Fold this protein.
Amino acid sequence: MMTLPISQPIRRGQVEGPTGSIRSSGWLRVLLTGASLLLYPALAAAEMPTVPASAAPPDDGQWTMPAKNYAATRFSALDEINGANVSNLQVAFAFSTGVDHGQEAAPIVANNTMFIVTPYPNIVFALDLTKPGAPIKWSYRPYPAAASQGVACCDVVNRGATYSDGKVFFNTLDDNTIALDAETGKVIWKTKLGDINTGETITMAPLVVKGKVLVGDSGGELGVRGWLAALDAATGKILWRAYATGPDRDVLIGPGFHSFYPSDNGADLGVTTWPSDAWQTGGGTMWGWIAYDPDLNLIYYGTGNPGPWNQEQRPGDNKWTTTLFARDPDTGAAKWALQYNPHDEHDYDGINEQILVDMNVDGKPRKVLLHPDRNGHLYVVDRENGELVSAEPYGNVNSVLRIDLKTGRPVMNPDKLTRVGVVVRDICPTASGLKDWNPSAFSPLTGLMYIPHENLCMDWKSRSVSYIAGTPFVGAEVVSKPGPGGNRGEFTAWDPVAGKAVWTIKEDLPLWSGAMATAGGLVFYGTMDGWFKAVDAKTGELKWQFKTGSGIIGQPVAYHGPDGHEYVAILSGVGGWAGAVVAGDLDPRDPTGALGMIGVMADLKTKTAAGGTLYVFALPKS
Amino acid sequence: MCSRFRSPERWEAIARLLSIALTAVLVFAANNAGAQQDTAPSAGRGPNEVSVTSLFPNGATPPRPPDAIGKRFEGNKFAIADGEQLFNQMNCTGCHFNGGGGMGPALMSGHWRYGERIEQIYESIAQGRPNGMPSWQFVLGPTQIWDLAAYAKSLSVPAPSSASQTAAPDTSVKP
């Protein structure tokens, strides 16, 4: 049903029926509503984007992967909790993870069990949702190497597990991917993919596609060479690994590779767009999100920043850093690429999410993906050929003047380019981007994308840096600062067809949590001082909020509990890059600390403290 | 010993304490021989018998007096300057920045996880520490590590309460 464009008045009338009937049969209503809508395709709004059915099957009430589905919509079709009753939402149960670093993971729900992964030391807890208070069903401690904490650039985070076919897959900070039996917590396999002595860590949440576990590395601030690997979900054997830099054979670029733009085509660009051997320590790590289109049989993901940050040490386009790749998941072979930020000078990684939608562009149906880039532009890209459909700024940007749709490349503001020994002031957005890793949601009911993001600028001075394996390879001194207006965060509802914001909520602190939309007409997100909020999906009006124990940088999810009711879950616990001043007990007097983030987060210690608690909310039982 | 000079009562009776004060100055100078010189100190070894704890069971084995080598480096402007250069060259700044910390802990807070004495800082650099501090003893020589320790210690600017501190008004990058 999520694939159907739905006119709002009809949908709203159905969702906001008598509270009692929703409460008692919320799950049934979802199914019935979906069925009834199938009868009214004529009600489809012509301009509303839809979600490809193959990438977002009908909601089964579980939440088996962080992005909810392959289309990465983070949309729940549950509607028991809605605008009319969300004010009654209350805590159903809570659970301490015992780890007080940044909790970026999405709780995963499958077979009436919830799976959560903590930051280092990456403990996995399975909670039994069928029992009162959801007691621990099992837990697993991988004991990652403690030294891995010293090469994790931006707190020791983990973005979550994923469930598939009776197994729970997750990554450890010290470069292992582990498959656990979802029923017992027993290790099925464990595969080592990297070496912390090269500065390599893993923080991303794996994605399972066609029996393969897709995993990428972190370490773009330590000269790590980025890659994405596919592991056999049954055995853990590495089936392929696609590097982001180096010769075509390493990048898995072959005869079937045809990018839309000329500058993304050519032999061994992963070598020739770098000085001498700089590609070997050039970054392009993959610590973000992967989407999958089963119809086209293509996975989509972006690579991270080039290293070092000092751009003068790496003249050239630095391919394939900050690049969107479309690959065949069976072989890893690249079909096309689109480099977002050739020769990046501002740490604008390309690892943010891709949301798959189909929509009309100039009257023609197009299969596209939506990507809010760190460089502040909302990329609408054709999923089949990599053509850039549009790229509009979704907040305050001055470093990029515009994205040239003819070349696919940004037109840079010469006044905001970075140089050695020169302090370039007021570059917007800052190094963490107009938006960092924390993923957006898309509601097929409103046709809107909900983007939790930042409003920060920075001063930047490059300096020369030597590569020493296992140490930071940055070469820049940065101080971040609030953007125009002083509000450091924004929550923006974006119309991808019109290419403009519909409404924006200003937040004092940067938004570092993900978003989730529901069929109840709500959108959920959290703030770094600990408020968990539900707002009206159409207007942005605040409908409910709850103050959790620590700042929120996690990913909200919704699921259908064994008792037939809807639950909403979020991990609370500040940290990550933006929250490092609290999670790492850093000194707020050094504005250059934490890669310049302390400059704009010095007050966070006065607003929240470290924590690590799961909160699960539901309507009161009557 | 320096506190004697700062005490107002002592200042009032400074004449009567002249001999004591002179003795104190001589002892102070002896303990800071390197700091008083206008040359960069060097060393052929690290410190002896460094503990990273302040617990000594059964009331025995109190910590020995500070290592004399460390005193030559601590507060010495040449050692600190050399240490700052190394701090950048070895990419220490990528983790600790200008003392506020990031991937690594803050060095300016006045709180030292593994001890605040310069020989304790020396061993943290040389040996590394379990939660992510790399071991530099196979990369750098003793003089370089002492220089780094002197620089790290010089960054310490304790605040009354770091939780209530915010960044200085001018938070821009130093030109």
